Amino acid sequence: MSDVFDQFQGTASYIASEELRHAVNVAVALARPLLVRGEPGTGKTLLAENLAAALGLPLIRWHVKSTTKAKDGLYVYDTVARLHDSRFGGTDGANVRDIAKYIKLGSLGEALAAPSRVVLLIDEIDKADLEFPNDLLHELDAMKFRIDETGREIAAAERPIVIITSNNEKELPDAFLRRCVFHYIQFPSRELMTEIVRVHHPDITDRVLDNALEVFFGLRSTPRLRKKPSTSELIDWICALKKAGVDLSRVSGGIPFLGTLLKTEQDVELVGKRAKA
Amino acid sequence: MLIDFLFELRARKLPVSTHEWMALMEGMALGLHESSLDGFYQLCRTLCVKDIALYDAYDEAFLAYFKDVHTDALKLTEELRAWLADPRSLEGLTDEQRQAMAALDLDKLRELFEQRLKEQKGRHDGGNRWIGTGGTSPFGTGGKNPNAMRVGGGGGRSAMQVADERRFREYRRDVVLDVRQIDVALRGLRRLGRDGAEDELDLDETIDQTCRNAGEIEVVFRPPRRNRVKVLLLMDVGGSMDPHSELMSRVFTAASRTGRFAKFRSYYFHNCVYNAVYEDAQFRKPVPVAELLSHSDRDEKLVMVGDALMHPAELLDPGGASFLYTQNRASGHEWLRRLAAHFRSAVWCNPEPERFWPGTTIEVIASVFAMWPLSLDGLAHAVRYLVRGGERPRVGDPSKWMKSMVG
Fold this sequence. Notes:
The structure holds two protein chains of two kinds. Chain A is of the alpha/beta class. Chain A is built from twelve helices and nine strands.
C-alpha cells in the first residue's frame, strides 16, 4: 500500500475502528470532504482534532449554530466599522478607502487562504438552516471564492482536509451528500470499548473494567431509554468511580453516580424500576 | 466492468449518481480498495451510500452481486506462502503427511490451487475437493479438515460476512415523508413582514440618512424579516393513529422548528375533538376548546392531523365520545364545525391512504375541513390552500350521512 494512502492510523489517545480509518484515508486521498455521522458522544468532533494531530497539520474549527449563514464562514464585511472610521477617522490613521481592511475572513475563508494544507472541521452542520449545506457546495467543490467587495479571489494553495460532523437530526440535501465521503460511526463494540477506556484510564484493572462495561452495556440495552449513555459518559463515569474509590463488585442496590450516565429524570426512574423488579 | 453493480444498486433504490460512481472509479484507480473485496465493500459504501438507512439495501445488493466471488488473487498467494512458511500450521500432522507436504513445493501447490479455481464454476459448500465453505477439502474456509487452508475469511471479518450479517437492517426506512421533505413543503407557509426588535442594519437607509445629515453618521436599524404566519396544530393520537405515530412525530419536528412561524402551538386530541383538547399526548392537561378559541386569533392557520376514522356515533351523536372522562353535550361533528368556523383558514391532513376514504366518517369530516392526504403532494396542496385559499377537494357524498343522522 502506498504511503500516501494509509496516512491516518488513529493516535495514542484516539482509537479509530478500521472502517473509520479507511473512510478517513479515502477522503484524504480523493480530496473530498468527509461527512461523519453517528450517535452523540461517539467522538465525531475528536476525530478532526486527532487527524490534525496525527498528520501534523493546523486545525481550523467552524462551529455551526442555528443562526450561522454560509457566507459568514467565508468572510464578513464590517460596514459599521468602516462608516465609523469614515466619520471619526481610524485610530491608526486608517485609510477608509481600503475596503480589504474591513473584510474579516471566516473559518472556511481562513482555511482556504492558509498558505499550506490545513484540517477544517465543520462541526454540527445540521444545526444551521436547511439550505446551509447547499450554499457551501461551490466553495467546497472548487475550494475557492471571491470577495465581491474587493474583487479579490481566494483559492486554496492545497486543498484542505474537510471533516464535517452531523448528528442524525436532520436530513441533508442530496446535492451536498453526493460530494462527500460518508461514514457512520457505529457505537463501539465491547472489544473496541475496552481499548478506548484503556487509552483514557491506563491504570485500570481488568476486573474493574469488566464490571464497569457490564453495567454500562446492560444500561444501554435497557428498552425505552430516552438517551442511551455514550462513550464520553462512560469515561467520565469510570473517572468518578476511580476518584471516589468505589468498587463496583461490592456495591449493592443501584448504580453509583448514575447521574453521569443518565441525563433525564424519566431514564433514571425507568432504570430504578427495572433494578427493583 | 462494474457497471452492472451500479445498476444492481440503483435497482434497489440506492440513489447512486454518476458523479459518485466516477469518484469510485477514481478511488479504485488510486488503489484505495487495496485490491480486495473487503476494501471495495468499504470504499464503495463510503463513496456511494450517504445514509445509514440505505446501508441495509447496500448489503443486500452486495450479497446478490458478489455472492460467487470468494477471494482475490493477491491475498491468496500471500496466504499460501504464509501457510507453507509457517511451521505451526504443520502441527498435528503425522510424519507421513509431513513428508508428503515436503514433497509438495510452493509452485506445485499454487498450480494445483489455480487449476482447481479454474475448474470450479460457482459457489461450493461441503465436499472434499473444491474451494468453498465447509467440507474437508484443503482449500476453503470453515471446513472440517484440521489442516485445511483458509481462503479469505481469516484475519478479521470479510466484507461478505459483514454484508451477510445485515447489521443495518434496523436503520431502514422506506417511508413516504421524511423531516426534510415536510420541512420543504412547510416552507411555502409564510408571509414575510418586518416586526420585532430592530437589530438588522439597514445599509441603504443609513447611507441615505447620513447624506441628508451632511456626513454626520446616522445609523439606521430595522427589524429583520420574519414569517408572520401563526399556526395552531391539533394532532390525533392513540388508537387507530398508532401505526402513524412515527410520521406524526416527523410532522411535529418539522413544524415546531424554532423560528419557523411567528407563533406555533400544538395540542392533542383522541379520535375527534370534543369540548377539550390536551397539552400532552397522555391527556392529562385538558384545555377547553372554548378557551382555546378565545385565545386564538382568527388569522391563525389551523392544521388538523388525524385519520378521521371512528364509529359514526362517536362523531355524530351527542355523548358519543369514546374517551373515558369526557361527557360531550354537543356532538364531535358540532365541535369540529365550531373550530372550522372560527379560523379563516383551516386544513385537515390525513395519513390514511386516499383509497380508504370513501364510505367512512372521513367523508363527513372532509365536508367540514378541506382535507388532503398527508403525503408530499397533499401537504403541498394544503399549504397552498392555507396561504391562498381556493377550491376544496370533494370527498364522497357526506349528505347521506347527514340524512341518516336526522332520520
